[in-house]
Amino acid sequence: MSGFKSPAEIARAASEAGAGKTRLSVGQLLVLGFLAGAFIAIGGLLDIRVTAGLPKDVWGTFASFLGAAVFPVGLVLVVVAGAELLTGNMAVVPIAVHAGRASWRGLVYNWFWVLIGNFLGSLFVAYVFGVVAGLLTADPYRTAVIGLGVAKVKLSFPATVASGIGCNWLVALAVWLALGSEDVVSKILGIWFPIMAFVGIGFQHVVANMFFVPAALFVGAPYGWAQVFEELAGSFVGNLIGAWLFVALAYWYVYLRQPAAERAVSGVELAPAARTAQE
Predict the structure, then answer these.
(1) What's the rounded Cα separation, in Å, for the pair 240 and 135?
(2) What is the pTM of this model?
């Protein structure tokens, strides 16, 4: 048995996973969504705690690489421990819909409750750990998170959307690689490289920003909640495009779109379940 799935097998696994996510209860989605938001926020908090005290004139961009190197712990926890992350679900639930395994109603249902759970989990870490535990209230951490939050809200809406596309293209590919791995170590490696890349590049991730932007506000950043939600809206739109168009739709078109007879001729395997619509 090989240690990884073929791309066609990953497409099938993604469709099956996405369909299963639409069948979870509201309570399950909220709890698992809360955990995912908290896990991603912990990765962001770790990034700040590791890099904030490194002088830029000494460390240069290598400080950014160190932050990018530790941030992936969040998605590792989501995938391996189990949680519901909106940005990953922006890939696997749409491919299930396109493959006939899930309904549009199921997609909206999943995203709505997972979004709420992710936001609550992110705010929990930002306030309880950042403010109550004092991990972001003193310098250099306070200055670092405020600078990060201000930079994010100052981006124009089109720039935030464009940056969000790049981000979730990579995040969805991290989930894709994890689905293709048969052991935990391979899953971690598959997750680490794309997530390290998006953080190192500086792309915008809506769930990570549910932590960074409110955390900066909690410790005195000079903006309000209206700007927080405007930034999150731009990240959301960009993330949706990146995962849906460049991962879910692309791989559905290549591996799951053909009728079964054509697929048998071309050698592309189709999950039998992909032919049955799920309401």
Answers:
(1) 32
(2) 0.91
